[in-house]
Amino acid sequence: MLLQTDEQTTADLRLFSDQQQNGICDLYNKTFSRGGELLLERMFRAPLCDREAINDRVAIISTFSKVNIRFPFDSWVLDKTEKYFSYANDVHDAKKPELSEKETSESVSAVIELLHVLRAFINNNHISSITGMAKQNAEIAELLNHDSLAPVFREQPKPKLSYAAATAYDDLFRLREKDKLARVLQFIYLLDVYISVADVARQNGFTFPVALPKGSGIIALEGVYHPGLKHPVPNNITMDSNKSLIFLTGANMAGKSTFLRSLSIALYTAHIGFPVAAKRMDFSVMDGIYTTINLPDNLGIGASHFYAEVLRVKKIAAELGAGKSLFVVFDELFRGTNVKDAHEGTVVVTKGFAKMKTSRFIISSHIVEAADQLKQQTNTRFYYLPTTMKDSLPVYNYTLKEGVTDDRHGMIIIKNEGILEILKNGKKNG
Predict the structure, then answer these.
(1) pLDDT, average across residues 90-96
(2) 327 has which bridge partners?
(3) Does residue 310 sit in helix, strand or coil?
């Protein structure tokens, strides 16, 4: 069972790299193999929504982090093996050049060394004691002990094999037992992901989340922060069945979008079963996560920004109407229209969301007046990110406070930048 999400959410949270910046996935990617890297990305693109599966993965990675197991395979051996098996499925492809005699010999030697190292590794007391890995360890151990691979373990790893031996092993690895070797590689890639993510958790001080039963509705984080920032400010946040919606206010640059990303990234990565950038995290498993933080105009269908927002709200409403438990974020709802319509739309839609008790919502807005009409919603909690003025300059501490902001510093910032003087007098040449 997989968590539902969409491209808008993955773009909002900057989960994957683009031409401008690395993504959150890259932060977790300390893998040693190309296959491990691809598996990690697949996990990031397919978060789970099964509590047992999430907690099992958390337990495995947490144990790897505690025992500090190192990845045992040499990069040269992995590179050779991966390249070698890329030919396994195309061994009869006339268009693909055959491996040379030297390449075949080196590759076969690499596979032999890899199998020796793997058998020693899984027989290690630490790895065999990891409860969540016991079944997979036993399956791989049985596979390695199969009679067909017995010659491999009678062969001592060495840099050069005879032509006859290399040819025989090549036939064994790429034809007769290629399915077994494919399973071995997938196991190694899984180890690669678990060990590398465990290292990331240990090096960054990430915490391991606890997945609670679906429907319990709890999202509780202590010290959550954005994992991509050098000097992040942690915050605490709790949502439950009594407080299922948060209305967030604050001035521009006060940190609203960063906070929304911090919380959403933590919840998303927790559903993968990965450690999160927080001090503590308990969360109810959700059916889906949908964010709207940086919604572009949909020029492909001739939609303005406002209409794109309306379509986004409609999509979320349809998912909610299907009875799904969702975590939903809207940053500056209806920013694409005039203040009056934005005010009315924000109030109406937020009240509608507040009725969906099994889902959790965070709505941010500059329209602080809307809060007065939302205070009658007993399951709504109000937070703001404050701005203080020091010598006519705004100062932000990025720390959540309960309540509604009364900060109105927009004109002060405009004046501080000298915009009015430039418009009046023209920009002077320096």
Answers:
(1) 51
(2) 289, 360
(3) helix
Best mean pLDDT range from 77-91, 238-252, 298-312 = 238-252
Could you tell me the CA-to-CA distances from 34 to 189, 266, 275 in Å, in that order? Answer: 8, 26, 22
Q: Which residue has the tokens 């946040």?
A: 237
Cα–Cα nearest to 427, from 97, 417, 121: 417
Q: Which CATH number fits domain 31-204: 3.20.20.80, 1.10.1420.10, 3.90.190.20, 2.60.120.200?
A: 1.10.1420.10
CATH superfamily of 210-425: P-loop containing nucleotide triphosphate hydrolases (3.40.50.300)
All CATH 1.10.1420.10 domain ranges in the chain, comma separated: 31-204
Residue 94 has what pLDDT? 46
Q: Which residue has the tokens 């203080």?
A: 388
Q: What percent of the chain has pLDDT over 70?
A: 93
Whether residue 29 contacts residue 199, with contact meaning beta carbons closer than 8 Å, is answered with no
Nearest to 109 by CA among 173, 34, 185, 33: 173
What is the helix (H) or strand (E) element at residue 383, kind and residue range?
strand 380-385
Q: 43 is written with which tokens?
A: 């996990």
Where exactly does CATH 3.40.50.300 map onto the chain? 210-425
pLDDT tens readout for residues 219-231? 999 999 999 999 9
Place of tokens 């093996």: 81
Q: Which two tokens stand for residue 280?
A: 């503590």
Q: Over the chain, what is the mean pLDDT?
A: 89
Rounded CA-CA distance 158/350 in Å is 68
- Biggest alpha carbon–alpha carbon distance for the chain: 89
Tens of pLDDT, residues 254-265: 899 999 999 999
DSSP labels for 82-97? HHHHHTGGGTT-TTSP
Beta carbons of 80 and 86 less than 8 angstroms apart: no
**Segment holding 416, helix H or strand E:** helix 410-416
- Ramachandran angles phi, psi of 212, nearest 5°: -100, 165
